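Supplementary Methods, section 5.1.

A reviewer requested that the exact input to the structure prediction be made available. We therefore reproduce it here, unchanged from the version used in the analyses.
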Amino acid sequence: MSKHVDGQIGTVAALVRSTFLVNAVYADSAREYGLTQQQGQLLCVLMAQPYGMSELGAVLGLAKSSLTGLVDRSERNGLVQRNPDPHDSRAVRVALTRQGAKLADEFYIETCRRIEELTSGLAPAERDTLAALLGRVVADNKVPAVFVEPDHTR
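The structure derived from this sequence is encoded token-by-token as follows.
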């Protein structure tokens, strides 16, 4: 493996290590809100709109059995509800409850704040460059919109 002598790391290591960093922040934030990391992800995804189970599984990258367990636990906790799909009587759509929407909003705002802090040592132009480059990687790899852009007017 090649190492950079000037203290910089390569693209692969930077992406992998930043993933671990963001996941750790996300997990810590979820724990403080009494959520698992997966429940936090579910709530953030559902903030945009209700999803059918197969769509939700694809967006979250979960197998049907894992997704069912996650939705069941979240439903028991009053965070989500299953509603009949208006276009398919055999299917359901998962949506946030009022309590789930409130918790999702609070969790989302705090998690965004914490992740934003990760780049506090960068100049605004560097943040813009980082966002543009990562945005291209995400777009080129057709990553689903699992986390919407924070609204800085809140």
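The chain is about 60% helix and 10% strand. These observations are discussed further in the main text.
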